[in-house]
Design goal:
Elements lengths: L6 H8 L5 H14 L8 H7 L9 H11 L13 H6 L3 H4 L4 H4 L11 H16 L5 H18 L7 H23 L3 H18 L2 H11 L1 H5 L2 H4 L3 H21 L4 H17 L3 H16 L17 H14 L3 H14 L5 H17 L3 H17 L3 H12 L8 H10 L2 H9 L1
Helix pairs in contact: 2-3, 2-4, 8-9, 8-10, 9-10, 10-11, 10-12, 11-12, 12-15, 15-16, 16-17, 16-18, 17-18, 18-19, 18-20, 19-20, 20-21, 20-22, 21-22, 21-23
Length: 427
């Protein structure tokens, strides 16, 4: 009879880390995101995935718990090996354990009810900060807040646990958005979305579950084969499965018109990424019909659904129209979106300018394309957004036949200045 695989290996595979080296890299990135400096290697993971893994050092344990969102005793580490391991470490290292890690598994219900409402207030504050605070600084705060909330969840009494779980789900979903769209750290985003889904389940909040599952569709849709060691068909099926789940949860939670329109837009973006442009346009047409029925006074959306609007739906449509080769229609759609977009939506405005540039390239207007790319870069100088920068670079590649134009040379001066290059390498 064969023995079962080590728990850490099963947990690693459940998060999509196919090799020990992948997990080591993810742990190092997670540690940096919560203010730790560690250097986990493939060899370290090998020891941890053995039949009798040694108890990890405190910083390693913190990183493991932050990445997997569970106590390390559920990852195959036996507390009976802890005393030996800790006795050989200097006191300075042992003292760096957090309050949450020392008190994991404490007596349930020992915290006041007010902790849950305080956590939700902080979650709302972080949500508002997203539009103005630099993403790399905010991500560290948000991810740590979500992890702490999950650690403390069992210690919140009674009905406060559901409120606490919703706060964790909202915060971890925001962390995943920061990691995926703003900072291009998909491995961290996968872990954050995983925690958001578990917390939404604890809160029995179907709409938060739907939002999280829809976000989880982005990772396989936007990855390439080299990143995931999967074929395009495998990644497409993974994205579609997440979206099927999102729609089921949305129906279960009686989602309103705005959320249904957003799910249509997300699915359209996934279909656009894999070349199913006709299907994507059908989804966007349906989203527009659904959104026309939206009455925020009659059936308001959840307060956390602040990343979508009619203008943003137009942005989705304009990008798909570009993929379909409809330059004139895309330009009209995107110009309308810019007019309707709120003034504080700087990140999305940068995306729209990059897409407008792509529409101009389709119509062979390189000077106008450069003008719009320059506008996008100016906005990125105020608020960095990796997704927008990706689109700027992609459009620049389509301008190669016009490299000799002064407008293109001026664009390159702006694109490859010190600030932009250093910021690009930092993400």
């Amino acid at each position: 009879m064969t023995s079962s695989p080590p728990p850490l290996r099963l947990a690693r595979l459940s998060l999509g880390y196919r090799s020990q080296e992948d997990l080591a890299q993810a742990l190092n990135e997670t540690a940096r995101s919560i203010g730790l400096r560690i250097a986990v290697t493939k060899k370290t993971i090998g020891r941890w995935e053995s039949d009798s893994p040694p108890w990890p050092q405190a910083d390693h344990a913190q990183a493991l718990q932050a990445l997997f969102n569970r106590p390390i005793t559920e990852l195959g580490f036996s507390s009976s090996r802890r005393s030996t391991s800790e006795s050989t470490r200097p006191q300075a290292i042992r003292s760096r354990e957090t309050w949450a890690s020392r008190h994991a598994g404490a007596v349930p219900g020992t915290l006041p009810q007010s902790v849950a409402s305080d956590f939700m207030s902080a979650a709302a504050a972080y949500r508002r900060m997203y539009w103005s605070v630099p993403a790399d600084r905010l991500q560290q705060l948000v991810a740590t807040h979500a992890a702490l909330g999950w650690d403390l969840l069992e210690q919140v009494p009674g009905a406060g646990q559901k409120l606490m779980a919703r706060a964790v789900a909202e915060t971890s979903l925001l962390a995943g958005r920061l990691e995926f769209f703003d900072l291009q750290q998909p491995q961290l985003a996968v872990a954050s979305f995983g925690l958001a889904l578990r917390a939404a389940g604890r809160a029995d909040d179907s709409l938060l579950g739907a939002a999280t599952l829809a976000h989880m569709a982005f990772a396989p849709a936007f990855a390439n084969d080299a990143e995931q060691n999967d074929t395009q068909s495998q990644r497409l099926e993974s994205a579609r499965e997440s979206l099927r789940g999102a729609r089921i949860f949305a129906e279960r939670g009686q989602a309103g018109a705005e959320m249904i329109a957003w799910l249509d837009a997300v699915e359209a973006e996934v279909e656009t990424r894999i070349g199913e442009v006709r299907r994507a346009l059908e989804l966007l047409d349906h989203a527009e019909l659904v959104y026309a029925e939206y009455d925020p006074d009659d059936a308001p959306s959840p307060v956390w659904l602040d990343w979508f609007s009619r203008a943003r739906l137009a942005g989705f449509k304009g990008n798909t129209q570009i993929a379909a080769g409809h330059g004139v229609a895309a330009r009209q759609t995107l110009e309308r979106a810019l007019t309707e977009l709120s003034v504080d939506a700087i990140k999305q405005r940068a995306v729209l300018y990059a897409d407008l540039a792509a529409a101009e390239v389709l119509d062979r207007n390189p000077e106008k394309a450069c003008e719009h790319l320059g506008q996008a870069l100016e906005l990125l100088g105020e608020h960095w957004y990796a997704t927008a920068m990706d689109r700027v670079r992609a459009v620049r590649q389509t301008l190669r036949e016009w490299d000799s134009l002064s407008a293109v040379r001026d664009l390159d001066d702006q694109l490859y200045n010190w600030h932009t290059m250093i910021r690009s390498l930092a993400t």
